[in-house]
Amino acid sequence: MSILITGAGGYVGQELAASLLASTPASTTVTITDVVEPEIPEAAKEHASRLTCVKADLTSTEAVDELISASRPYETVYILHGIMSSGSEANFELGIRVNLDATRYILDRLRATMPGVKVVFTSSLAVYGLAPPGFVISEKNFPASPSTSYGSQKLIIETLLNDYSRRGFLDGRCMRLPTVTVRAGKPTQAASSFASDIIREPFHGRKAVLPVSKETEVWICSPYTIIKNLMHARTVPKEAFGESRSVNLPGLKVTVQQMLDSLLEVGGKERRDLVEEKYDAATDKIVQTWTPQFDTTRAFELGFAADISMEENIRRFASRFV
Amino acid sequence: MSILITGAGGYVGQELAASLLASTPASTTVTITDVVEPEIPEAAKEHASRLTCVKADLTSTEAVDELISASRPYETVYILHGIMSSGSEANFELGIRVNLDATRYILDRLRATMPGVKVVFTSSLAVYGLAPPGFVISEKNFPASPSTSYGSQKLIIETLLNDYSRRGFLDGRCMRLPTVTVRAGKPTQAASSFASDIIREPFHGRKAVLPVSKETEVWICSPYTIIKNLMHARTVPKEAFGESRSVNLPGLKVTVQQMLDSLLEVGGKERRDLVEEKYDAATDKIVQTWTPQFDTTRAFELGFAADISMEENIRRFASRFV
Questions:
Q1: Is B149 within 8 Å of A167 when comparing Cβ atoms?
Q2: Which residues of B touch A172 (CB under 8 A)?
Q3: What distance in Å separates residue B287's CA from the closest CA in chain A?
Q4: Contacting residues of B for A246, CB less than 8 Å apart
Q5: With an 8 Å Cβ cutoff, are A163 and B146 in contact?
Q6: Which chain A residues are closer than 8 Å to B85 by Cβ?
Q7: Interface membership of A309 toward B (CB under 8 Å)
Q8: For burial by CB atoms within 10 Å, which of A129, A145, B72, B234 has the most?
Q9: Mean of the pLDDT values across residues B77-99?
Q10: Fold annotation for A2-178+223-248
Q11: CB-nearest partner of B149 from A155, A163, A243
């Protein structure tokens, strides 16, 4: 059995590759790819012989054709690559080329070479615009009406993948991720980067910038739960999804203030003081379009896990990366 | 001032061209295009000097480039072309090429040559899947989760056009049409074709086939009101749309039985008897995914008109086309 992960140079991709290797039989191989050759994840060193790292620019159809061919069928393909929210807002052409065109070409190549293959696509709750204050969004009670190009491109791929799944071309699973916090690694181009930065950077003794107000509510999920749920996405029987393959993954509603309080509790005053408030209108404008509360009954019914607490989340981060 | 209509060989395009010519100043010109050179609408004969008919295959980028160029800017572009629901379901590749790729290329060409131009896109209520029995859909209370490739392709263009409008690339208006009934002309590849066939054909002394049960509820709109509302779509100030350019147009909920009763009343027993019940599972399967009731408050707030009665609809058809 063989699994492919795109965008695997990123934090989630690296974690996912390590977890897949740790939890699958010795006969399972994993191919990870990114525009820069992805590293072997630290936690996957002992399984390195089952891991292939491929440098590939997925906006090149030749590169996709080489990566995906009938002679090497995958059991599951995880599509994680993409230009993130701030990046796609700042550079429309780049976002649409990577998030829409490259992904669509991958879907078509998969359909042509390994029809019916399982595809786990990391979408985002950014497919939703802002709900009325206090409104709790589920998959059934609110339209996906994105307020960003990033969210629009995610929604378009979801729409295609749902239709491909309905027609039996592919077996898609569209996972709408909350903001993944605390991410190890570096600050990213996502407008949500601050939500990890304000925890991660202080633990590395570095200052972090908070570009939004402390009253801001965010819907987050720990990397621990995200990885668990992305692994689970592969194992859900396709019949269980019903009429749509799109799922709002579980998360946690917290204010930035609560995150800072948890930082203080787990990391102490010295670390808390490294967070500097510096309002940024462009980031705040994007963040304000995200609704901070979701009803994830559907995800629970499909066997996805609830998130851990903010404190446990920070403790896990600190114990692994500091 | 100049206006372009694609898919103008079809019934709605022909009616729209005639109405635009009749209601605009003598300085306004209208270009109508289709894959076969569209005819001059009967009702537009007196304005023929202001009308240009162009044969163009819009899946050819050269044809689009020729039709849309900076030297001949349009004030409004009506995008009406498309492979209809049954056609897109039967031939996926054709549907995606015409409904998605050709339309997307047109949007990009418009953005490049006449940025900010008004674009009225005829979408469809087929962007929605089936709602729970009795549920009344509005733009705000239910997700667009299409059950057909046709609906998926419409939703993708809406998503792009909304993002293009938000960014100021174009000034889009996505009109989700109910089933247009009574259409003059010929039966079409739409799964909804029967809804016009069962009225039109008997009035021409021909048999018509009813492929669904008489209890089936449908959400329809007369051509009279559709044209009125498509003309209105051009005149709504863009600021009025708020966060989304998508509008569920007004319509009428009727059962097939009520349509047949209206046929009997307006057309008499002889015509009513020309409708033959002949169940077709493939058509019924598509029709059953359409929700028959909508809350169109938003459309009314934007100044769109309510539909006329079924009887008045049939009388108008009979007086013009029989």
A1: yes
A2: none
A3: 16
A4: 145
A5: yes
A6: none
A7: no
A8: A145
A9: 96
A10: Rossmann fold (3.40.50)
A11: A163
What is residue B145's predicted lDDT score, i.e. its pLDDT? 95
The number of angstroms, rounded, from the C-alpha of A104 to the middle of its chain's C-alpha atoms is: 18
Chain B interface disruption, residue of A124, A140, A152, A289, most B CBs within 10 A: A152
DSSP 3-state of A57 = coil
Kindly determine whether residue B142 and residue A141, on different chains, have CB atoms separated by under 8 Å.
yes
- Residue A286 has a pLDDT of 84
Enumerate the residues of chain A whose CB falls inside 8 A of the CB of residue B152: 159-160, 162-163
The mean pLDDT of B95-124, rounded to a whole number, is 98
CB proximity list for B269: less than 8 A, separation 6 or greater: none
Contact with chain A for residue B139, Cβ under 8 A: yes
How far is Cα A219 from Cα A253, in angstroms, rounded to an integer?
5
Please report how many Cα atoms fall inside a 13 Å half-sphere around the Cα of residue B175, on the Cβ side. Answer: 31
Specify the pLDDT at position A86.
Answer: 86
Furthest-apart CA pair in chain A: how many Å?
A: 57
Residue ranges of chain B assigned to CATH 3.90.25.10: 193-219+252-294+306-321
Distance from CA of B227 to the nearest CA of A (A): 27
Query: For chain A, where do the domains classified as CATH 3.40.50.720 start and end?
Result: 2-178+223-248
CATH code of the domain occupying A193-219+252-293+308-321:
3.90.25.10
pLDDT digits (tens, 9 = 90+) for A227-248: 999 999 999 999 999 999 999 9
Query: Which pLDDT tens digit goes with each residue over B257-305?
Result: 999 999 999 999 999 999 999 999 999 988 888 889 999 999 999 999 9
Q: Outline which parts of chain B fall under CATH 3.40.50.720.
A: 2-177+223-248
**ipTM given for this complex:** 0.95
Structural tokens at position A44: 């996957």
Residue pair A35/A10 in contact (Cβ under 8 Å)? The answer is: no
CB contact under 8 A, A166 and B147: yes
Q: What share of chain B is helix, strand, coil (3-state, %, to 5)?
A: 45, 15, 40
Say how far apart CA A185 and CA B48 lie, in whole Å. Answer: 66
Whole-angstrom distance, CA of residue B311 vs CA of residue A115: 50
Q: How far apart are CA A119 and CA A133, in angstroms?
A: 34
- pLDDT class for A74, splitting at 50, 70, 90? very high
CA distances for A51 relative to A3, A4, A63, B65, angstroms = 10, 10, 19, 47
Superfamily of B2-177+223-248 according to CATH: NAD(P)-binding Rossmann-like Domain (3.40.50.720)
CATH architecture of B193-219+252-294+306-321: Alpha-Beta Complex (3.90)
Q: Do A243 and B92 touch (CB under 8 A)?
A: no
Q: Nearest chain A Cα to B169, which residue?
A: A92
